[in-house]
Amino acid sequence: MKNSASVSHIPFPVMGLKHQSCRNSSSFSPLSLRYSTVLISALFFTSFYLFISPLRHVPEPGFLKGEGKRFIGDLRDAKFSWNKLCFGPTFEKLKLAVFSKTWPIGAAPGGMERHASTLYHALAARGHEIHVFTAPSDRKPHNDVHQGNLHVHFAANDHGSVNLNNDGAFDYVHTESVSLPHWRAKMVPNVAVTWHGIWYEVMHSKLFGELFSNQNGVLPGSMTELQEAMPRLVDEIRFFSSYNQHICISNSAAEVLVKIYQLPQRNVHVILNGVDETKFVHDPEAGVRFPEKLGVPANVSLVMGVAGRLVRDKGHPLLYEAFSSITRDHPGVYLLVAGTGPWGRRNAELGQNVKVLGALEAHQLSEFYNALDAFVNPTLRPQGLDLTLIEAMHCGRTVLTPNYPSIVRTVVVNEELGYTFSPNVKSFVEALELVIRDGPKVLQRKGLACKEHALSMFTATKMASAYERFFLRMKNPIYCQYPFPVDC
């Protein structure tokens, strides 16, 4: 195959520990600990200021509405998401090796697995030969999957390895985050990585978690994770150059990789996540049937919903406290909770205004979103791009979410699309009050605006088309030019 990258004779671990580093940064002497605490505190506040400074709902230069339609030139110079562009069909086919942490089995897997499944099914459907090296999300033995052009190879366990020599040469190797660890990636001539979360964002997740759990500063916690966060960030910045090309799933993450991680602008690209637009659709009839099946009272004034893993870092302690306050003042507000996790039982304790549904299949999720007046995402993790927000928007639902840069600069880009709040109870309650005050008619109008925005940016078709052009232009530089003769 022309210009194909041979990756034979190299054993690759299917999985790498998330943000794994070869060095241990947790050993401090008492003196260095005091010094590092002061230094890290200063760096934290500086980093935190940089993190929150772009939270205004103002489009920035380079991300203006319609900019993709005006772009002419080399795609490596595009400083906006490739989803804004319209790529035409191609007759050149690719053979890709892909590394993903896990592969979805059943209804419970998280967003990264569902993203991988959606993307590689779509690329295979476009005629490309895709070999995914992964592990099943349920950690049980499964036979390899061979569906047309899609080949999913399961490892025996988390520490299994795969020798790609059996499958010959590939045009390109792609890894979802550190599924292909950096010390292996540096040995591969053509490798690209999609980052679903970077340590700079994880660091702020830990900060928000600490601020929420220890609101008055009275707990005696050791703050070990916060003290070690900055050394971990330094380690990550050092190993990111092991990957040739970087794809970010939010505009803010791309800016961090260029300005803080100091990667070359031409090696950093933005391709936003997309979901199957044929499965997540606006369906008012389903929106009526679904709550009736669940026994939701017909006289409720407003139905809100939350979906995903019911765990602490997804913001369920924050949701619990805020919704406890809301139900006291607004007994007509109802909450549907889709997902599994330790906070399922705790959410059920909120009373008769809350119903916990467990894990839902994709078609059930679409009905679930359609049954809502507003979708709530209380996450304490300002990283990546939560698929539940995008799914709800496709179903014509406005969203209520924290004001993290990855969200307000990519998803909820203006107030017509939803509501945002700071990740604390007071701000969350104020946002919930505003949703209730606006009422169903305003929420419906905003939901339809969300649907239009999602269809223009967050579809599986646009995502797969952008990834296809990305790999084609790495194989043949002629595809760097936009528009190409076949492009829209």
UniProtKB/TrEMBL annotation:
Membrane spanning stretches: 33-52
Organism: Citrus clementina
Domain Glycosyl transferase family: 303-441
InterPro entries per the UniProt record, alphabetical: Glyco_trans_1, Glyco_trans_4-like_N
Source species, domain of life: Eukaryota
Chain ranges of the Glycosyltransferase subfamily 4-like N-terminal domain: 109-277
Name of the protein in its database record: Glycosyltransferase subfamily 4-like N-terminal domain-containing protein
Keywords linked to the UniProt accession: Glycosyltransferase, Membrane, Transferase, Transmembrane, Transmembrane helix
Keyword Ribonucleoprotein belongs to the record: no
GO molecular function, one term: glycosyltransferase activity
